[in-house]
Amino acid sequence: MLKSELIERAARFRSAEGDPARHLHDCPALVLNADYTPLSYYPLSLWPWQTAIKAVFLERVDIVASYAREVHSPSWTMPIPSVIALRQYVKPSEFPAFTRFNLFLRDRFTCQYCGSPHNLTFDHVVPRRLGGRTSWENVATACAPCNLRKGGRTPAQAHMPLLVPPIRPTSWQLQERGRGFPPNYLHETWRDWLYWDIELEQ
C-alpha cells in the first residue's frame, strides 16, 4: 500500500458528500498561518464555525476552502469556511510548555523503557529523593509496570536503560512529532494543507 493511502486510511477523511446536511458543530475550520502551514498539528489548529466567520468579517483571515453547508441571515448567505489562513503571520514560540501531553508527544506516546504504548505515566530518571528535578531533561514517559519496577532508582541501578535520553524539545520538533499522529476525523478539504510534504508518487 502506498504511503499516501496509508495516511489517508489512518486519517479517515470524511467525504464532503452530505455537507449541506451536516450539523454546525461538525463544521470546524482548519486554521493556517499566513504561510499556509497549520498553526499546530497536535492538537490540530481548529476554530468553531462562529469564530471563523467572525474572523472573516473582521478581515483577519482569508477563506481557502468551504463546506457545502451554509449559514443565513435575512440579508446574506455564506458557505461555512473549512480552511482559513491568517493574514498576519504568527511566530510560534521556540519552546513548548512542559505539560504531560507534550511530554507524551515528545516520547511518541510510548514507554521509554520498554516501548509499550499502554498505561502511560511519567518517571523521574534521577529520582527526586536523589535530587532529580521535574524538567524536560529528567522526566520520561513510562508505562506503569516499568515505573513500578524502576521505583526510586536510577536507570543504571535498575538495569533499565532508556530507549532515548530525555531532552527539551523545540516547538518545531513537537510539531514534527504531531504530524505522525493525525487526528481521526478530518474533512477532505484539509488534506492538501496537512500533508503537503508527502513524497510525490512517480
Automatic annotation (TrEMBL):
Residues in HNH nuclease domain copies: 98-148
Top-level taxonomic group: Bacteria
Keyword annotations: Endonuclease, Hydrolase, Nuclease
Xref: InterPro entries: HNH_5 (IPR029471), HNH_nuc (IPR003615), NA-targeting_endonuclease (IPR052892)
Pfam families xrefs: HNH_5 (PF14279)
Keyword set includes Nuclease: yes
Gene3D superfamilies associated with the record: 1.10.30.50
MF terms in GO: endonuclease activity
PANTHER family hit by this protein: OS07G0170200 PROTEIN (PTHR33877:SF2), SLL1193 PROTEIN (PTHR33877)
UniProt-recorded name of the protein: 5-methylcytosine-specific restriction endonuclease McrA
Organism: Novosphingobium kunmingense
